[in-house]
Amino acid sequence: MSVPPTGLAATRAFFGPRAATWELKFPDDGPRYRRAVADLAPPAGGVVADIACGTGRALPELRDAVGPGGTVLGVDVTPEMLAEAAARGRHRVAALLLGDALHLPFRTGALDAVFAAGLVSHLPDPVDGLRELARVCRPGGRLALFHPVGRAALARRQGRELTPDDLRAEPNIRAALTAAGWRLDDIDDGEDRYLVLATVH
């Protein structure tokens, strides 16, 4: 498996052709998404966004978390991914929006929580991307950076070695979050998931 590229055009070129079969590659990830959303704990009745939502795997879980009085938004840069999310019925639980994580279509402080699976490794400037996520969250808003496998398992899957400059390593992601206005609350980098929880300063 190749390492996905960064940048808007490269990301679309990589994910567009893979959208229709994306969930078929990893059919057993659902419970890990459910657990990560539970750990994020978006407030009932709140406004939550899944940034880089892809096919929308987390959207039903986010809807369950905020309840019928809440608002769920799914944002992705790849039209094919959003089309697949809609084909799977996820437009019934969330508004699906075409958008770039570096320039989100939300006012400042609009969100109570952000869920982002696999996002940071695709950002050309991670601090800028994390800063934009902080901008759209209210003070005290929460962030979950998630991947359904840990860093070591993902590296093996991609046929590469872990290196000290890996952005998602604890010292590096902590520094990036801090620079972007977040406080790192918890990190879980086990075999079966990578989850960072953070709060807007």
UniProtKB/TrEMBL annotation:
UniProt GO BP: methylation
Keyword Chaperone (UniProt): no
Residues of the Methyltransferase type domain: 50-144
Keyword Chaperone: no
Alphabetical UniProt keywords: Methyltransferase, Transferase
InterPro entries to which the protein is assigned, alphabetical: Methyltransf_11, Methyltransf_Superfamily, SAM-dependent_MTases_sf
GO MF terms held by the record: methyltransferase activity
Protein name listed in UniProt: Class I SAM-dependent methyltransferase
Organism of this sequence: Amycolatopsis tucumanensis
